[in-house]
Each structure stands twice: as C-alpha cells, then as structure tokens.
Amino acid sequence: MPELPEVETVRRGLNKLTLGEEIRGGDVLLPRAIAHPLSVEDFLAGIQGTAIAHWYRHGKYLLAKLVEPTHTSPQTAPPAGWLGVHLRMTGQLLWLVSTPIRDSSLAVAERENINPQETLQKHTRVRLFFKNGDELRFVDQRTFGQMWWVPPTMSPSTAITGLKRLGPDPFSEQFSLEYLAGQLQNRRRAIKTSLLDQALVAGLGNIYADEVLFVAGILPTTPCTDLNLEQIGRMRAAIIQVLQAAIDAGGTTFSNFLNVQGVNGNYGGIAWVYNRAGEPCRVCSTPIQRLKLAGRSAHFCPQCQR
Ligand SMILES: [Zn+2]
Questions:
Q1: Residues 181 and 160 occupy one common structural domain
Q2: Same domain, yes or no, for 149 and 197?
Q3: CA of 289 to the centre of ligand 1 (A)
Q4: Within 10 A of 70 (CB to CB), how many other CB atoms are there?
Q5: Does residue 172 lie within any of the structural domains?
Q6: What's the CA-to-centroid distance between 302 and ligand 1, angstroms?
Q7: 74 counts as catalytic
Q8: In a shared domain, residues 144 and 197
Q9: Considering the domain boundaries, does residue 171 fall inside one?
C-alpha cells in the first residue's frame, strides 16, 4: 500500500510533469472510481478545459488546484476547481508521454490499425487526456482508489469527506508537541494502534509506524497514557525523520507501488524492523519480534524498544 512517502514522491513527480498542462478530456473505465460528483459526466465536464496549477498533499490525499488555462500565474490564480486522488491499496498514477503508438485518438489508431485497448494496463480505471497529447492514467488493481472533482464553489473537505476527519499532516505546523501530547493523554490504546489512526496524524501506515517506534525506542504495545513528554517528543521527531528519509529515498519497494513514471522507489533495503521478524536487530542483534495488535502486525526489537 502506498504510504505517505510514496504519495509525496508521486506528488513531486506530478509537479514536475503536469503543471500548466490543460486537460482536454477523459475516459472513466470504472465509474465507482469517481467519488464526487455522483455522475461521471459531471466529473469529466468539470475537469475539461482546466489546467493543473499545483499538486498538494494532506496525509495520503493528493489535491490538484485547477485553473483556467489562460492564467499567466497559475499559482495565484483563483481555483477553477480541484482534482483529488487517493491511491488506497494498489492505486498508481502513470504519466504517459504521447507517441504515435499509444496516441489515444481513435483516428490515429484506426489509421495504423492498432486497437487502443491493447496499450491499456488491465486495471486501468481512469484516463485523463491532455491537450499536449500526454495522458495521466489511474491504474488500480484492488479498485479502492478514488478520484474527486471539487467545483470552485465548494471546499475540498466538503466533497472529500475523508479530509474532514483527517488529523494534521506530519510536516505541518499543526503537528506540534503540544498537539500530540494533548491527543495522547486521552487515549488508552496501544501507541502503535493510535499512530495508525488517521484522525491523530494523517498518512502514517503500518510500515512507518513500526519504523518510527523503533527509532523512538518505544514498544508498540505501550498505552498512550503511559508515555511521558520526553517520549512523545522523541516519537514526534522520529515520525518526521523516518518519513523524510523515505521521501529522500524515493518511497519504498514494500508493495506494488510505482511512482508517477512507473519506476520503483528504494526504501525497502533499509527498514529497521518492518517485515524483519526473526532477523537480527540492526543495532543490538536481538531477533526482531512480531505480534498482532488490533489486527495488524507489529515488528519491534524487545531490547531497543521499551
Ligand atoms: Zn535492538
């Protein structure tokens, strides 16, 4: 499953490739991939003729500000709407550069006697076509991924209901020590389980929660209410440090995630504890242990984490 660092890698890729590009239309192959508006026609009508000004990220939500293509400074232009994307379990965004063989227009395909469907991945759900001939393709095997078009008259968190319940992004100012300590003093659950709660902090998944707790030296089973301020401070710093390291490495290879140009990231080789049950701890050589916590596996070093 793509986690925050992978989504951030995708965001950076999209900001390199798609800014200023005008959407000329699209093709929705799986209507339920569109979470808002209810009708696929309204989704396509909403995005058509707009240009991408900038991609933002909150937790694992990607949000593109859309503007009228005529604006000379898209960053400051008023939004003509928003395009939201959540990759969920297996979603991938692929940016395809136009070449004659994969040109999406039927006319070209017929002329060259090519079935345009042949160039499509099996799990292609949504295709967005750009005026310059490039294509942004949403491929999603498990079909939990979603896209939204939010009209300019609406705030993104009204249409994208998950944004409403989402806690602060770990890289935002709102994710302060005061905030985290205040939240944790009311929670009796294990810290690992709370770190996965998107209302506490946005975008932390199973892999990085394990890694963060190792770096912070805290056992995943520790009740939140047992953590002192010093431990919470260490954990907050570890969240930022571990995520930043993974972003710098370009995401993980833990799942079938592909970055925006279809290239695997490379965080996998340097995991401290995740998926390393029975292997020696990289610090003290004690075998890494694994247990089930609220239905999810937790990996930890019984020596380094207390
Ligand atoms: Zn250890």
A1: no
A2: no
A3: 10
A4: 9
A5: no
A6: 7
A7: no
A8: no
A9: no
2 belongs to the catalytic site: yes
Same domain, 232 and 158: no
Q: What is the sign, positive or negative, of the torsion defined by CA atoms of 228, 234, 238, 239?
A: positive
Residue 230 among the catalytic residues: no
* 127 tagged catalytic: no
Distance separating alpha carbons of residues 20 and 74, to the nearest angstrom: 7
Q: How far is the CA of 306 from the centre of ligand 1 (A)?
A: 10
> Do both 70 and 193 map to the same domain?
no
C-alpha distance from residue 245 to each of 58, 252, 275 (Å): 18, 11, 18
Under 8 Å between Cβ of 154 and 80: no
- What is the distance in A from the centroid of ligand 1 to the CA of 217? 9
What digits encode the pLDDT tens for the residues 80-138?
999 999 999 889 888 888 754 444 444 443 334 445 555 788 899 999 999 999 899 99
What is the value of pTM for the model shown? 0.85
CATH number for the domain including 209? 1.10.8.50
Structural domain of residue 119, as residue ranges?
4-164
Residue at 240 is within a domain: yes
- Active-site residue among 11, 57, 60, 65? 60
Q: Are 269 and 178 in contact (CB under 8 A)?
A: no
Establish if 235 belongs to a structural domain: yes
- For residue 248, the CA-to-ligand 1 centroid distance in Å is 24
pLDDT digits (tens, 9 = 90+) for 273-298: 998 999 999 999 999 999 999 999 99
Are residues 75 and 147 both part of a single domain? yes
Residue 209 CA to residue 205 CA, distance in Å, equals 6
